[in-house]
Amino acid sequence: MVKHDRTGRQHRQWLEEARKYQKRGDVEGMLSALLRLPPPLREELLPGAADLFRQAVREQHRRGSWSTLSTLAVRVDTEPGLVERSAAPEEALATYWPLVWAAGRARDWERARRLWQSLSGPARAHAPLLAGAMEGWLSSEGSPAPELIAPALERLPLVDARLGIEPPSQRVSLPPPRSLEEAEGALLGLCALEPFPVFASRAEAWARAAPTEVARAIWELAGQLAARELWLRAAEGKGHATLLEPASLLARAVREGGAPETLSTPVLQALRVVAAGLARTVVSRLEDAEPFCALAQAAALQPPAQPWVVQAVAGLRFEGAALPRALSLYQELLARSANAPLWARAFLAWCEQNPEAPNAPGWLQEGLRRLIATESSALLSWLRGAVSSERMELIECVASTCAPDLVESWVEACWEGANEELRRALSEAISLLLGRSRMKQGGRQLEQLLRGVRNIEEAERMLMEVEGAMEQVHASMKLTGDGLRIWRRFAPRVLTYKVDFLEEAVRHASSDAEAWDATVRYLEAHPGNTGHIEALRTMDVCGREALARRVLDRWLERSAADVPALAEAALAAERMNTPCRYLHPVLGAFMQALAEQLTAPQIPVVEQARALANKHGFRLRKRRASRKKKSESAPASRASRSKKKPAAKGAAPPADSPEDGEERG
Would you call 342 exposed, middle or buried from its count of C-beta atoms within 10 A (0-12, 13-18, 19+)? Predict the structure, then answer.
């Protein structure tokens, strides 16, 4: 239940953020929130979001901002409705066209081919030569055969000199290197003659077609040239997005070239340059996350660099559109290094990306097993130092999605060294485990109930009838199997942290004596009014009336003859909706103590409690003089029968209770 409540709150928050950014015209902020919502919840904002998105594509295309368009292409691949919703067919096609080119320029060929599917039909019908050239360009990943594009180029109109357009100059076509001796000269010449995107594409094609040793030499030199290009662009200060192309080529060179020693220093330095260029420690944009993640994965291939890479990644928090890319980085790094902060950051990121998933992926659960076996102290250290909200989010997510035995081992490993605040938080994991056990048990009962159902309508009707009843059954259901084993294992440790645990202890107690021992432990940890009221209500729910009376007696003895304390107890009982059979004795004790004092305390809490007692029918009795005093004052009374002596100011007479016939309602 806690996980579903948290999911609903998160969805409402994202929906409000999407509305806010849409009103401002902030496309990036709107998409970051909108695409985190499940598809059904996007429908409300999708028509307006699509209009704003198409307008942004037109504007970025006019500016020639291909890096931004490549990011927008990623968003469309996630939600095609951003292009097609409430748009005329011509407008949708005009929006897809620059997105296909942007994805291709970013060498995101799979996505470019998927986006092209929306254009291929109309293109074949109206411009078959162009369609053939585009499909050749996409299928060859930027290096189409001349015979595929020549027919389309021949149909272009001749250059009109009056327009001031010069025909393109002839370019030198460099052949690919065929030996180690040719590799350096060919690659340097290619870098000097071609723009960097063309150089990167051609170098990759050469390396794939070359023999193994030549390919390794090409990748090594291409990586060094990519590092040089990255530093030059960083020095020019043109923006973080411009670092994506050289960072991607450098990362590919390290991976494809077998992580050569000559590239270990350049890739680590490039990673530091990219990390320093991030605006803050929270990364939400894909164009910021991609170069960092690519270089981090490449740098981690060198064992000496792994500690620095892990520390750098664990110090960042990814969100929004950057989450999928970050999760692949986390998975690869955790396979190489068992690190508690990195694992915690990865689990929180996965939980944010998949708020409704029932089970955590195997790589995260296996990472936790390794940490428990080798780095349990590091797990405890992270929990101690984390902010409260992140700590509780991690505990809830782990307890809701990991295997029960793994959660038990995790709590066990961290319990001994934890302080009281952390133990209280860890006890929530046990509460969630017990809830999962009940849900599983209730699910089996529901499955048995539905076995005889003949059709969907009958099943829906039966589910509506039993929904409310099942909630009550879950609340009162005794644990069995694994749930009972978990409870017996952790009950002595967690009993005092939540009243739910006290209810569990009383429900499973074999005798009143055992239930009372658990209650005394709870009351010693919670000696105030709230603790006693919670204990009273627990005994009432579990049908232990005799123990409820003992709790009530213990509570009243604690505040005997203390008027302010009894007043506070009565008001607390009223606030917590305590049944009248337990509230009335507290009010009676309060009024009795008030009557026995010659001077009533004139403080707000006493006045409020007195008003509450009057509401429930309690009245103060008038004081009666003793017989001896009455006989001595008889002559004076007869002498002045018509005059009455006023009572002493502030004196309080004894109290009548509702049991004496004075209760009102």
Answer: buried
